[in-house]
Amino acid sequence: MTLKDLRLVDLRKEFASRDPSGPRAVAVSGVSLDVEKGQLVTLLGPSGCGKTTLLRMIAGFEEPTGGDIYFGERRVNDDPPNARDAAMVFQSYAIFPHLNVFENVAFGLRLRRVPAAQLRERVGRALDITGLAGLAGRSPEQLSGGQQQRVALARCIVMEPRLLLFDEPLSNLDAKLREQMRVEIRELQQRVGITTVYVTHDQVEAMSISDLIVIMNAGAVEQIGRPDEIYARPRSRFVADFLGKANFVQARVIDATHVDISGTALEVRPHERAAGEMVTVVLRPEALAVGREAGMLRGTVRRVMFLGSIAEYLAEVPGVGELLVDHANPAAGTLLGVGEPVYLTPAPACATVL
User: Fold this and answer.
1) Quick one: average pLDDT of 53-65?
2) 198, 43 in Cβ contact below 8 A?
3) In terms of residue numbers, what domain contains 312?
4) Which residue among 193, 209, 237 closes a domain?
5) Residues in domain ABC transporter (predicted)?
6) How far is the C-alpha of 223 from the C-alpha of 209, rounded, in Å?
7) CB burial string 125-147: b at 16+ within 10 A, e below
8) Which of 21, 94, 130, 247 is most exposed by smallest CB count within 10 Å?
């Protein structure tokens, strides 16, 4: 059996109510997770779902109510944060304003009394990896938000931890810089090979950087899998709705690969529901092709939004309801207008039966 870098076993966290006689609040409920060496695993979910509490238990800042945390073969439940061989990049960066970049990155090594020559070498290597080599003498107020984020990352990497933990590190950056930094974080993580647990509520961020995504809701795990697996084959309406955009359509099962939607047979991914059963089908907006003259489903355009790379249509289809459609490369043709008829054709086997 392959040894896991991180293993969570039935991990739970409850908080006492302000009312001594009231029920305890359950923040994390029975989470189990195996993380392989070098993987980047993202904890994804809405605010209050328990993802940050779970990360803080891994780091040692919160004590579990029940369950176990293993770093490799070592159970670390009772170890303080500084003994867990993990480093965390916080949402606020938490860099020291009175220290320059070099000293910020060197701070943890100085606490460990690392010899001066080794300290300079390790700090220099961390600054090179994070693209800060030319900024070693600058103070934090002379840095951009992205550069400050790199300093926080370099300060963790220089410690050579077993686990790297991120608590929504990009939430303070503007949209364009956030996109740039998530690419840099992923490339850096793959280059240094550190096992990483990353917390975010941003679905695009999670899908673009993760080896595995753990979707959480109300303290529990809804689904674990690769980004493409979860997106294509959500196991619940919550997962389908939270990860990307989705249309939910009522249908009757014809057989293991077809359903009937308002008199139209639609090919779906293989499923195990019984023939004749009424089911909910997830149909992603990009899986619907738009036509002006022919298609499987005829509807009427109710809304048009031009978003550059796509045009987003809302079409009303009799017997089906309103469907969201993403039409790629809209600049290559003429946009449909509100009130115009539209024909929609779902791509074969791109719909999922819940």
Assistant:
1) 95
2) yes
3) 245-353
4) 237
5) 6-243
6) 17
7) bbbebbebeebbeeebeebeebb
8) 21
Crossing angle of helices 116-129/175-192, nearest 10°? 130
Percent of the chain clearing pLDDT 90 (strictly above): 62
Pairing between β-strand 220-225 and β-strand 247-255 as defined by DSSP bridges: unpaired
337 and 214 housed in the same domain? no
- What is the C-alpha to C-alpha distance for residues 154 and 132, in angstroms, rounded to an integer? 9
312: tokens are: 């987003």
146 pLDDT band (50/70/90 cuts)? confident
The pLDDT of 227-253, averaged and rounded, is: 94
The last residue of one of the domains, among 178, 210, 237, is 237
Residues near 45 by Cβ (< 8 Å), separated by ≥ 6? Answer: 51, 201, 215, 216, 217, 222, 242
pLDDT band for 2, please (50, 70, 90 cuts): low
**Predicted TM-score of the model (pTM):** 0.86
Q: In Å, how far from its chain's centre is CA 60?
A: 22
pLDDT digits (tens, 9 = 90+) for 157-215: 888 899 999 998 887 777 777 888 888 888 888 888 899 999 999 998 999 999 999 99
CATH number at residue 149: 3.40.50.300
pLDDT at 283 over 90: yes
Same domain, 47 and 146: yes
Burial grade of 228 (CB within 10 A; 0-12, 13-18, 19 or more): exposed
Number of domains the chain contains: 2
Domain co-membership, 231 together with 264: no
For residue 210, the one-letter residue type is: S
Query: Which distant-in-sequence residues (6+ apart) come within 8 Å of 184 by Cβ?
Result: 131, 150
User: Under 8 Å CB-to-CB from 314, ≥6 apart: which residues?
Assistant: 301, 302, 303, 304, 322, 323, 324, 325
Residue type, 69: I
Q: How far apart are CA 212 and CA 197, in angstroms?
A: 10
Q: Both 43 and 166 in a single domain?
A: yes
